Amino acid sequence: MIDNDAKDMVLKAWDTYQSLIAALGDACWKIRSVFYTSSFAIIAAAFSSNLRLLYLLNPILAVLFCLLEAGYQEIQEQYIDKTIQIERTINDMLAGEKIPYFPDDGISTSLRTPSTKDLVRLFKPKKYLFWLSYITVIVLSLILFWLDVTKSHIPT
Questions:
Q1: Mean pLDDT of all residues belonging to the chain
Q2: Which residues are paired to 150 by β-bridges?
Q3: Which residues fall within 8 angstroms of residue 59, CB to CB, at 6 or more apart?
Q4: Alpha-carbon distance 22 to 84, whole Å?
Q5: How many alpha carbons fall within 13 Å on the CB side of residue 38?
Q6: Which end of the chain is more exposed for a tag (fewer CB within 10 A), N or C?
Q7: What do you get for the CA distance between the two ends of the chain, in Å?
Q8: Phi and psi angles of residue 34, each rounded to the nearest 5 degrees, phi first
Q9: Which residues pair with 153 in a beta bridge?
Q10: Which element (helix H / strand E) includes 42?
């Protein structure tokens, strides 16, 4: 039987993981909002100042922000995996298991370094809510550049 100190430690770890997941989710939304603000400010500046080359900044900006958000999302995924393992431990404790499951790497906030393969996984079709906005801004900016859409030259 597991004592109350062990149960408290497991519950505290679960609560910590949940807090980290929520904070990372908030950070992703902030990254996305700064990206939208910046990219559409560049589009407005390119249009109003008649500098169509500014449109080409957006694809670069999109790639940089996308990689930043992808890193945060990968870290969030690792904490979600840790939370699932801790929930298994909690369930075993609640069921009164004599030897409850404990994660192989113990209970810690340490993570493995995200690999390129981990980041590429975020671009699967089912994750379209992540990557579609970045692709949309890239395509929109390239179309505006190609059509030479500026204040002095609006294509008809």
A1: 89
A2: 153
A3: 138, 141, 142
A4: 15
A5: 17
A6: C
A7: 77
A8: -65, -40
A9: 150
A10: helix 4-49
- In tens, the pLDDT along 19-75 reads 999 999 999 999 999 999 999 999 999 999 999 999 999 999 999 999 999 999 999
For 126, which DSSP code? G
- Give which of 82, 88, 114, 84 is closest to 101, Cα–Cα: 88
Up-side HSE of residue 19: CA atoms within 13 Å toward CB?
7
**What angle, 0 to 180 degrees and rounded to 10, lies between the N-to-C axes of helices 4-49 and 128-146?**
10
Q: pTM higher than 0.90, yes or no?
A: no
State the DSSP code for 99. Answer: S
Exposure letters 31-51 (e unless 16+ CB within 10 A, then b): bbeebeebbeebbeebbeeee
Q: Which residue has the tokens 């379209």?
A: 128
Average pLDDT of span 107-111: 79
Compute and round to an integer the Cα radius of gyration of the chain.
Answer: 23
Which has the closest alpha carbon to 137: 70, 41, 71? 41
